């Protein structure tokens, strides 16, 4: 009895220890997962920041190449290529984090840390390249005293931003939000650029008071103000662009209407049922687009693009229908000659079999019978393409029958 009690106590202690270890491990894993979740949140924020930096750099690159040439913009182009490569890897890792559920906390921390490193590298490389371009622009102006002029430029752009907002408000009474979405996005980018320029100018003013270098800050401010100016130029052009899109949409509608009329005539004259059906489906889509133009009256760009897409599809369908009709016409033109050739070859094959007599076996006679059957099909087939194929098969079988008859007659 004492031994049983000892064993029971030992077993209970062992079970308790195992349970305690498991609970402790689960608590540690939960704690680790919570820490990993915080790292994932930081990683997501850096992905957004780095992706925006890449998009800004893409726009900056086109302007830099236009302003300084490809050689001067080489550093930014190289940095942008590296940043894109790093961001592709970061997005893949983020997708893995979003999809994964059973991964350990250590794995998730590793992925998050890698994302942070990639995004930080991308942001740093782009900042360095853009700073070099900004310094290049500042050097060309060669004005260390440019702080007052940059302040004045910032104020001028701020007034332009207010005017642009008022203009978009007026346009909003005539056009839908989707038509002005790009311009609204440009306003947001202007606000960001002006805010960054203001911070840089304030810091530069403080450095000037302490007789510290300010070239990097002035370069940053100048670059942000130039970016804001370009965005505002784009906003100012929105009204003219929408007016041009309205005219383009009207022209596309007129052209599509003319092409629909021609396409209906082609559909009605189409002999091939499949081509006629396909063309009719595209005609229906185009007609629906014409009838639904009122739905896109407030978004002329979308209206123009939809009409243009309908015209493209209609052109493809009409070309396919014309090709099908061309095949029918070509087959119809060649059918007469093919029938004559088949009939002539049949006569030659029959004569060869008759001359061979009993020496000609069943194989030649079978091919002759098949040639005659194909010729009957060719005469009765309403589809000229199928009739032409049958006539050519008849000629081929008759040629085989003649060759076999001559062979058997020669060896018999």
A few lines on this structure:
The radius of gyration is 40 Å and the shape is elongated. It is mainly α. The chain has four domains: 2-140, no CATH class; 143-236; 246-327, no CATH class; 329-411.
Class from helix and strand fractions: mainly alpha
- Whole-number tally of structural domains: 4
Low-confidence stretches: none
- Measured as a percent range, the helix fraction is over 70%
Mind telling me the C-alpha Rg?
40 Å
Number of strands: 0
Question: How does this model look, in words?
Answer:
This protein has 11 helices and no strands. It is mainly alpha-helical. It has 4 domains: 2-140, no CATH class; 143-236; 246-327, no CATH class; 329-411. The termini are far apart. The relative contact order is 0.05. The model has no long low-confidence stretch (mean pLDDT 83).
Highlighted features:
mainly alpha
């Amino acid at each position: 009895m004492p031994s049983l009690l000892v064993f029971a106590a030992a077993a209970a202690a062992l079970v308790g220890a195992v349970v305690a270890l498991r609970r402790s491990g689960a608590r540690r894993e939960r704690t680790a997962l919570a820490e990993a979740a915080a790292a994932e949140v930081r990683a997501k924020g850096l992905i957004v920041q780095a992706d925006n930096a890449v998009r800004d750099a893409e726009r900056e690159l086109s302007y830099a190449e236009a302003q300084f040439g490809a050689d001067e913009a080489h550093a930014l182009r190289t940095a942008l290529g590296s940043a894109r490569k790093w961001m592709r890897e970061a997005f893949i890792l983020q997708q893995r984090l979003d999809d994964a559920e059973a991964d350990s906390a250590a794995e998730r921390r590793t992925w998050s840390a890698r994302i942070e490193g990639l995004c930080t590298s991308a942001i740093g490389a782009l900042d360095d390249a853009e700073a070099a371009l900004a310094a290049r622009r500042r050097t060309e102006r060669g004005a260390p005293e440019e702080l007052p002029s940059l302040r004045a430029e910032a104020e001028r752009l701020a007034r332009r931003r207010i005017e642009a907002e008022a203009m978009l408000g007026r346009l909003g009474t005539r056009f839908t939000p989707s038509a002005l979405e790009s311009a609204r996005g440009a306003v947001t980018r202007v606000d960001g650029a002006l805010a960054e320029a203001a911070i840089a100018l304030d810091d530069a003013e403080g450095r000037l008071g302490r007789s510290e270098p300010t070239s990097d800050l002035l370069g940053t401010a100048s670059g942000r103000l130039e970016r804001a100016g370009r965005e505002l130029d784009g906003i100012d052009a929105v009204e003219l662009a929408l007016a041009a899109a309205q005219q383009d949409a009207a022209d596309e509608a007129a052209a599509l209407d003319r092409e629909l009329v021609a396409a209906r005539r082609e559909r009605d004259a189409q002999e091939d049922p499949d081509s006629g059906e396909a063309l009719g489906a595209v005609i229906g889509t185009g007609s629906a687009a014409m009838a639904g133009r009122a739905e896109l009256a407030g978004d002329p760009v979308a209206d123009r693009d939809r009409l243009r897409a309908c015209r493209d599809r209609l052109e493809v369908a009409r070309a396919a229908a014309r090709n099908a009709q061309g095949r029918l016409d070509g087959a119809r033109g060649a059918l007469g000659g093919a029938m004559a050739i088949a009939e002539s070859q049949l006569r030659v094959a029959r004569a060869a079999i008759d001359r061979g007599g009993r020496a000609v076996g069943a194989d030649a006679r079978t091919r002759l019978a098949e040639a005659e059957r194909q010729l009957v099909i060719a005469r009765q087939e309403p589809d000229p393409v199928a009739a032409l194929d049958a006539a050519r098969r008849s000629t081929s079988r008759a040629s085989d029958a003649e060759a076999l008859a001559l062979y058997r007659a020669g060896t018999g």
